Amino acid sequence: MTLNAGSSHPHAAPVLPGAQAASGAGVETMRYRIAEAARRTGVSTSALRLWERQGLIRPVRTDARYRLYSEDDLERLRRIRRMRAEEHVNAPGIRRILAAGVAGAASLDGARLRQLRTQRGLSLRAAAERSDLSVSFISALERGATTASVAALQRLTSAYGTTVLGLFGPGMRGRRLVRPGERPMLRLANSAVRIEQLAAAGSTRLEPQLFVLAPGATSDGAYAHEGEEFLYVLDGAVTIWIAEEESYPMAEGDALSFPSTLPHRWRNDASGETRLLWINTPPTF
């Protein structure tokens, strides 16, 4: 059932007792009962109740104790659903991700991806064939309707003849010292993965990055590229798979190096965040 809080229009959906109108510039706020919210987000009503008990969502309540969900609540629910279904993040991890407001961290820029594709004269279908991704997925990325895993984004940027590094923007050319508050950042996979650039842009031999992985975060598939890589676990725990023939559970202080040409994937095994120093040479990731 759709609730139009505060509406007096004769054809407006009925307003439950106690529903509050969130007015702004004369715009009426739409609110939804739990069954309608579940239908619109593709989540069961029992899951919505569970997520409320877990502190992931806080719908307003009427005097009669009916739950009312706003449009912002629905978007939050869709984000939680994606983190649960696609990234397998647990409730504590989701709470941390939703609460995080990392200054300077940019989400994936769909317009930038569209620009890269069109600059190379590629149609959506051609880009899909080159990257082994679906047309609908690439289109949704460009519209900002979905996000990408690390593996999917690496395949896409490789198909465009560039790297994930190219999505960071102009960077800090000519800089030697990079302080913590100055690092360009990129958030992927519904903010389950944060990549911080540790060196100034323009280096032709070295690509050092800090990977911050939320609980349960994965690469969502394997990827490969030219060069070599080295990673060091600053804290947390992670498992790295190489060519699906080798697996390396790693804890704080462990280091690993391997040819980047071997398909590799990873998963955060810690109950909290895992932080990795990850270096590629040359910058081909």
CATH architecture of the largest domain: Sandwich
Mean pLDDT: 80
Lateral arrangement of strands in the main beta sheet: 5-6-7-8-14-9-12
Largest sheet: 7 strands, mixed
Q: For the record, what CATH class of the largest domain applies?
A: Mainly Beta
Number of domains: 2
Helicity, as a percent range: 25-40%
| CATH overall fold name of the largest domain | Jelly Rolls
Number of strands: 14
Structural class: alpha+beta
CA distance, first residue to last residue: 48 Å
Would you list the SSEs in sequence order as H and E? Answer: EEHHEEHHEHHHHEEEEEEEEE
Count of helical regions = 8
Cα shape: globular
How big is the Rg? 22 Å
CATH 4th-level superfamily of the largest domain: Jelly Rolls
Low-confidence stretches: 1-28, 101-105
- Range of strand content: 15-25%
Protein model, in words:
There is one protein chain. The chain has 285 residues and is an alpha+beta fold. It has 2 domains: 2-85, Multidrug-efflux Transporter Regulator, Chain: A, Domain 2, CATH 1.10.1660.10; 105-281, Sandwich (Jelly Rolls). Helix content is 27%, strand content 24%. The chain contains 8 helices and 14 strands. The protein has helices at residues 34-41, 45-53, 71-85, 91-99, 110-119, 124-131, 135-143, 150-159, and strands at residues 2-4, 30-32, 60-61, 67-70, 105-107, 185-188, 193-197, 207-213, 228-235, 237-242, 246-251, 255-259, 264-268, 274-281. The strands form 3 sheets. A 7-stranded mixed beta sheet has the order 5-6-7-8-14-9-12, with no helix packed on it. The radius of gyration is 22 Å and the shape is globular.
